[in-house]
Amino acid sequence: MSLEQISMRVDSRLLNELDQIAKSEFKRRSDVVRDALVAHVKHEIEIRQIKEMVTKQFLEGKLCFDDFARIVGFDTAQQIKVGKETLEESIERAKKDSKRNL
């Protein structure tokens, strides 16, 4: 794995806190930042996987809308619900049209 360098600006108070953490953990500042970044990215991946899993459960009818909305957020849940309903209506119309054409 190749390492890339990034540059960022931080508030001086945050930098002081970072330096204190690095000193107490006997690490370099960059190691503390890297560890925090890795932990954050892992957390975000886990959250995304959970949201994908509960979305699948909702679409399969295994999870009620209220619980789904609590997990993924109301706006996202509403968009997915509308998309699901639209898709179901389209499928029903297509079935009716194909029966008429027989």
Supply the helix-strand structural class: mainly alpha
Number of structural domains: 1
Put simply, the count of helices is 4
Strand content: under 5%
Order of helices and strands: HHHH
Mean pLDDT figure: 94
Q: What's the total count of β strands? A: 0
Q: Given the C-alpha coordinates, what overall shape results?
A: elongated
- Give the uncertain stretches in residue-range form: none
Q: Main β-sheet, in a few words?
A: none
Determine the N-to-C terminus distance. 59 Å
Structural Rg: 24 Å
Helical content band: over 70%
Task: Name the features.
102 residues, mainly alpha, 4 helices, 77% helix
Report on the architecture of this protein.
The protein has helices spanning 12-24, 29-59, 65-72, 74-100. Helix 1 crosses helix 2, helix 2 runs antiparallel to helix 3 (65-72) and helix 3 packs across helix 4 (74-100). The protein has one domain. The mean pLDDT is 94. With 102 residues, it is mainly alpha-helical. The chain is elongated, with a radius of gyration of 24 Å.
Brief summary of the model shown:
With 102 residues, this protein is mainly alpha-helical. The protein has one domain (12-100). It is 77% helix and 0% strand.
Protein topology:
Elements: H1 12-24, H2 29-59, H3 65-72, H4 74-100
Helix pairs in contact: 1-2, 2-3, 3-4
